[in-house]
Amino acid sequence: MKWLTEAEDKTSSFLIDHPQAKKWTIWISKFIIEAISAFIFAYGFRAFISPTIECVKQWATSGDAPTTVNALISGGASGISQAIIKFIEIFPVNLIEYEKTLVSILYFVINIPILLLSWFKISKQFTIFTLINVGFVSLFNQVIPDDWIFNVVNIYDDHLARAIFAGITTGVSSGLALMIGTSSGGVDVISLYISEKKSTSVGKYSLIANTITVLCYVLFSAIGSKTNTYQSSMKMDNIVTMALYTVVYFFVSSQVVDLLNIKNRKQELQIITSDSQLATVLIRSFPHSCSIIDSKGAFSGKKNFFLIMVISKSEVKKAVKMVKERDPLAFMTVVDINQVYGRFYIKPIE
Predict the structure, then answer these.
(1) How far apart are CA 339 and CA 332, in angstroms?
(2) Which of 119, 220, 250, 298 satisfies CB 3.0 to 4.6 Å to 127 for a cystine?
(3) What are the residues whose beta carbons fall under 8 Å from the beta carbon of 132, sequence distance 6 or more?
(4) DSSP H helical segments within 73-202, as ranges?
(5) Closest Cα partner for 53 from 139, 156, 152, 153?
(6) SS3 call for 217
(7) pTM for the complete prediction?
């Protein structure tokens, strides 16, 4: 819409002329997005991944009140927290009533060494906003009332729906944080660090780390179901079933993360143009170079130039707009690229 475009242009012009206002606008925006990201994850965790026993009792429609929870296994620090709790439950203790609090505490504690890695190896601003996200997740997981869950959502017995919605909420939470140059903590920080070094997608590294977490959780759950009288009602086939649905959850989550986090996705822009200066305009506007091939139109027989340029997906819209403005008759194709080798500039994480 025209009025929206004009408003964006005016806002952009104002912020360019007022650097302090721009800085505070960016910081406040990041803070709000981190809070939203944290709430989405915490609510998804409580509603779909590992609801409290109180929610499960409210959802139960018949029979005796349940004493255990059929949980999916979360990824990252929250999944490690679940695995640690299952390890403790190998011994004859009953933690079901305290699991929500324990997850909140362990989630924060596990993230401390990861945040130290982030502080020294990635960036300080990145670490501060990631810490905000981690803190909000721990807080929201603890304070969200159970009635906000069982009065709104009731798909506890539909494991496939739970896996899909868990993947969507977790993926959106991580994706929102990554879109603004931060993260939701845990494995995301490690996988982001690796992906920045390798210039590839984040999701697959998270998937590998989360698979290891699932295997540990299943192992500890299986042992606990035999050694802990409080967990004796858990059946091995049910544990394996939830682990298999967790694979669905991880797959959906990784796809959503890679869909939202386009910074590390590369595309090749191929341009056929008669403008000899278009290449100069492009390399002055982007931190990437391009190749020029002299060519000739098969139908017209006229000389033209074939430009090849690799850019980040987030830069494609700007590049296409610039080419159209410079040469309305230019012919362009955009090709997805799985991997780039060689020097390719990526803006450092702030």
Answers:
(1) 21
(2) 119
(3) 31, 34, 35, 38
(4) 76-88, 99-121, 124-143, 147-150, 159-179, 187-198
(5) 156
(6) helix
(7) 0.80
d(CA 183, CA 177): 5
Cα–Cα nearest to 311, from 342, 268, 347, 349: 268
Give the C-alpha separation, 8 to 16, whole Å: 12
What's the DSSP call for residue 164? H
* Residue 267 β-bridge partners: 311, 336
Q: State how far the alpha carbon of 28 is from the alpha carbons of 7, 158, 337, in Å.
A: 19, 39, 34
Q: What is the pLDDT of residues 118-165, one digit of tens each?
A: 888 888 888 999 999 999 999 999 999 999 999 998 898 899 999 999
pLDDT in tens, 258-280: 788 766 678 889 999 988 889 88
d(CA 217, CA 221): 6
Q: What is the distance between the alpha carbons of residues 201 and 346, in angstroms, rounded to a whole number?
A: 13
Four-point Cα dihedral 106, 112, 113, 118, nearest 10: 130
Spatial separation of the C-alpha atoms in residues 147 and 76, rounded to whole Å: 26
Q: Cα–Cα distance between 87 and 91 in angstroms, integer?
A: 8
pLDDT of residue 5: 57
Distance CA 135, CA 105 (A): 10
Residue 350 identity (one-letter amino acid): E
Element (H, E) at 237: helix 236-260
Q: How far is CA 30 from the centre of its chain?
A: 15
What share of the chain in percent tops pLDDT 70?
85
Residue-wise pLDDT for 157-194, tens only, equals 899 999 999 999 998 998 898 888 888 888 778 777 77
